[in-house]
Amino acid sequence: MKKPRPILFALLLAVLAVLVFWFIRGFAPERIAGPGEAPSPAASPEAPVSKETMKATLFFLRDDDGMFIAETRDVPSTGSVTADAEAVLAELIKGPTGGLVSALPPETKLRQVFLTKDGIAYADFTKDLTAAHPSGSDAETATVYAIVDTLAFNFKAIKKVFILVDGEERETLNGHLTLNRAFLPDFTLIAKS
Amino acid sequence: MRNVFGRGFDSRRLHQIMMPHVRYRGSWAAALLLAAVCLAAVLPAAAGDQRTIVLDPGHGGLDVGAKGKFGSLEKDIDLAISKKVKALIEQSQAYRVVLTRDKDVNPSLENRAAIANNNDALVFLSIHVNGSFRKKAQGSETFFMSLNATDEESRRLAYQENREQALDKSIAGADKDDIKMILWDMAQSAYIKQSSQLAELIQAQLNSLLGTANRGIKQADFVVLRGVACPAVLVEAAFISNPEEEQKLVDEAFQDNVAQAVYTGLMRFLAAYGKN
Prior knowledge:
Number of strands of chain A: 5
CATH architecture of the largest domain in chain B: 3-Layer(aba) Sandwich
Mean pLDDT of chain B: 80
Strand order of the largest sheet of chain A: 3-4-5
Order of helices and strands of chain A: HHEEHEEHHE
Mean pLDDT of chain A: 84
CATH superfamily of the largest domain in chain B: Zn-dependent exopeptidases
Helix content of chain A: 25-40%
CATH topology of the largest domain in chain B: Aminopeptidase
Shape of chain A: elongated
Structural class of chain A: alpha+beta
CATH class of the largest domain in chain B: Alpha Beta
Oligomer: heterodimer
Strand content of chain B: 5-15%
Order of helices and strands of chain B: HHHEHEHEEHHHEHEHH
Largest sheet of chain B: 6 strands, mixed
Number of strands of chain B: 6
Number of domains of chain A: 2
Largest sheet of chain A: 3 strands, mixed
Radius of gyration of chain B: 22 Å
Low-confidence stretches of chain B: 1-26, 42-47, 159-174
């Protein structure tokens, strides 16, 4: 009767230790960060500013030679690549603020962006992307690479971009460039400053 | 069904037609039929020995192509220029000319390439005028298909994906599509060098005859060029989106010059690189 007692005690202690360890590592950080807990007043004003916007680089056309020129803007950020990519593309569609030319029809709307685990971003636009497109191989090339270069430039996780229209693959935007494949960015189209 | 391998189709069909000869030996009717088939096959070849140039006026039908500020449409100018090139080539009887469209319709891009292959075309020329978001965009350029890293990579990816999927399941429709795409890619890839030479010769003529800015020869992955099994280029003569160049493009004399440039470039190519 005396022998099992230390073993039971040891087991009990071990179980307790594990539970305490789990509690500290697993639950404690969540509690501290959780919305129920009142955050320290010093941290709260800083955190949203640094976490909720990102510097987005948007590519627009220079009227003279059709090279891409970057415009940087603060864009709301959630930290999720797809949500941020949607915000950046929405900003790209809004067009330039200076004397540059947008390579996307202003009527275009973004439906969504999703990302595969091998780094291909699918950017899905409404059919306005093709219906309101001016056509011509110059215009098609500009549209494709404004989207592809902007996404790849801003997000390391995005290696290639596949453009969809109304959720489906298109053969071309308007009769030229093969669209039903993933595009690598072409940063040679960006003007050297 | 798309006829991917337009080349060789005729000869195979001829063999099929001639095969009954074996089965119906001794029958006078069959002998007559055979004679008629042989005559029909031999006569056009003996009379012409003409190879075919396929001209492809861009867009058409509901696809108007690029639009000008003054209301002119790319599809109309593409067709007008193509008809002028056809007339120039047909001045001599050395070549037969087939247009992928001779009226306001829009054949699919793959069908345009198939027309070239089914006619065993010597050369395929797609005639376009350019359009841009930029008002200042101007000049002329000639494209041939690109086989850059992007294409190589996407083809390799498609191949790998096919193999992986093939392990899991039998080949489904999507897989066949991927394989078909790879084959179509390869059709033009055998002619890239000749296509670049053709592009260079046409671009030189556009520069000297049109007086438009030289945008040079470029490579791009254009659907219409992918499946063409002969030297193939896409000409972009001036910008309809540029009001100044739009006014040139609707002018008959300017269209004549575009046609002359394309024709002269083509003839120099054929003279330099032979009939094969």
